[in-house]
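hey m, so remember when u said the tokens were messed up on ur end? i reran from scratch. heres the input so u can diff it against urs
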Amino acid sequence: MLLGLIVLQLYLIGVDYFFREKPEFSAQTPFYEIDNYYSNHLTHVWTKGDIYSFYGSKGGVNLEILDDNIFFIGGFEEKSIYDLKLISLDSSSGNILWQVPKNRPLLWLQRQPTGLAANENNVFLNWDSTQKISGDTKIGAAKVIAYNSLGEQIWSQSIGGARSITTMIVNKNTVSVDGSFSSNYYLLDSNTGKEVNSIAKEIDNHIWFKDPQTLYRYSHIENSLEAVNQTSGDILWRYSISDPIYLAPKLANDTIVIRTNENRLVGRILAGRILAINKTTGNLIWEASDALSNVAITDSVVHYLTNDLLLRSININSGEIVGKTDFTPSKAVDPTHNVHQIATNGRMMFIYFGGEHQLSAFTFDNSQN
């Protein structure tokens, strides 16, 4: 029986490989076109079509940028949900530079990438487990793997008991991981992958960020963010957040930017709010609603797509809207693939329109980026 299943699997893989096309992304006129703009004038550079992406986890981010290279979780055809890859593209042309894994493994050994993050040195990828586990088991557990901009693996770390990675928060020195079914929250060294800290989930202190004096942790039970003095253990401030949080928060200068997940679906996406919190005082600086995509941040501006596909740009310090770009059509064409992601390096803006399976690149025409 087992031998028969193995033979059948090998046959199906062979048939799939024979008939599968592996084209370069097709260049085409953008289906989603700039309709109107205020202040932030974007100029279209390129659009690549027939790109498919799927949300692998509630907190999954599928689009990042490092060293002027774009990183994307997806594939080239609709059935790519069974063959997702980490794809690197040149930001100026959209040409494919490399992809991992290079070869499709056997179905029962297949791990799926479910989330992506980057810091100034590396790009970090979540991989699902190969079996149902829990507790502290690391054999077959979900993994975090770090790659450099050339696609070379730097390190790999299994997350004990995790079947998938719900949330991964990456900073200069740390990677904070919340794994589903895992007994602990883990904090890893971003340069080596070694475990820096683990805290039992029953204690409910999920460390988001650390600096020399203060750590910032989140309580999933109390739905509150706390700043704690690392020496004394004193709580410096606490901020309550009513909505669940799955997407990784961002730390930019003195501001913590949070994209919440309301219990309201737009297509298949949990829409949410954007909160900007002063990391020293814990005070809310500003709040915005109707966030459809993830958040991309430059030094002074927060960018995100709204529910009607408006690219909104907000000054991180004041909450002032400094840029708006309308796209047409103003809705997802294919609601079953309603994945919308953005990334920016300050000079260019990259937007994945899941409704038409297109990745587009734009340049900023002013300095308010």
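this time it looks ok to me. The mean pLDDT is 82. if urs says something different then somethings off w ur setup not the seq
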